[in-house]
Amino acid sequence: MTQVDTARTGPEDTGRHDSRDRRDSRAGREGWRGMLRAASRPGPWRRGGVLAALAVLLGLTLLLHARITDRAGLGSLVESFLPWTGLFVPVLLIGALWRRSASAAGALLLPVVVWLHLFGGLLGDRSGPAGPTDLTVAEHNVAAGNSDPAGTARSLAGSGADVLALVELTDEDLGTYEKGLAAAYPHHTVLGTVGLWSKLPLSGTRPLDITNHGPLAATRPAGETWSSLRALRTTVATDRGPLAVYVAHLGSVRLMPRGGFWTDSRDRDARALAEALAAERNERVVLLGDLNGTTDDGALDGITSRLGSSWTEAGDGFGFTWPAAFPVARIDHILVRGVRTERSWVLPATGSDHLPVAAGLRW
């Protein structure tokens, strides 16, 4: 007969069982709580909602910039600095990586694609092969407060341009430019604050019917109109036929203490200039000037729809021209019709707060 020993349970054994049960119960509760916390924690596609919304807003701003209201000049302000919106992309990307947000990272595809569509073509060198061109033209806002007009004249005389347009000329400095440019340019014409110097004969020079009103209008001399001071049209005689050349300095853009970004004067000038270009019968046209706006600015559509940008066609990079110390926008332009731009470039800085621009043209 086999004897089976029966385990005896004492007070100590009961205490150990109770302690183990409590630990098991506590672990179970903590496990469930951990699972609930994990389930309630947002996943990578649910995190970073604000960052994703900002990325979409940036993309829509780029995509629909032409529809932004121009009340208080908002549309012009955004479009003038539109290329710089690309700087928000790496900032938002860093935020998305920090938040580990897949939704924010995915939303960035919209602004990246639209920005590349708008400006990707400007990142490289679009100029043609080096070689002679039929005509080289240049434009410079020499600035009324130029610190070295004589040096500016010497620099421009050595630029190699056949046709040179200057805007924002003053009575005090005009003689300096005429003297400094006389040897290189036997022909020139000046109307008010704009002028054209040329190695080729000029004819038919006339002021453009561009009016300018607003806070700067009070600075014009008595009896003068802004049409004679700010824009002209002339004909350059080339061996390929006549070339219509427009020189223009559109109204200034100002950040007003009241009223926001003030563009009324510039916009009126742009409309008047667009009308003059629409009436131009010469098939070959060049516009040289400070338009106080970029080619992305919808206020200049009447002009840019009729003339193409030499920089967009054959420049290198963005070609910002203002302010000269740290250029952030290209508001100085060479726009053409009926001729092809082989090369377009920005000239070295002078005593002006603008950089000069040049382009080599071919028929």
From TrEMBL:
Kindly state which keywords UniProt assigns to this record, in alphabetical order. Membrane, Transmembrane, Transmembrane helix
**Cited Pfam families:** Exo_endo_phos
Q: Where is this region: Disordered?
A: 1-28
Which InterPro entries is this protein grouped with? Endo/exonu/phosph_ase_sf, Endo/exonuclease/phosphatase
What superkingdom heads the lineage? Bacteria
Q: Which residue windows does the record flag with biased composition (Basic and acidic residues)?
A: 10-28
Membrane-crossing residues?
Answer: 50-69, 81-98, 105-124
Q: Tell me which residues make up the Endonuclease/exonuclease/phosphatase domain.
A: 140-354
A GO molecular function annotation here is: catalytic activity
The name under which this protein is listed is Endonuclease/exonuclease/phosphatase domain-containing protein
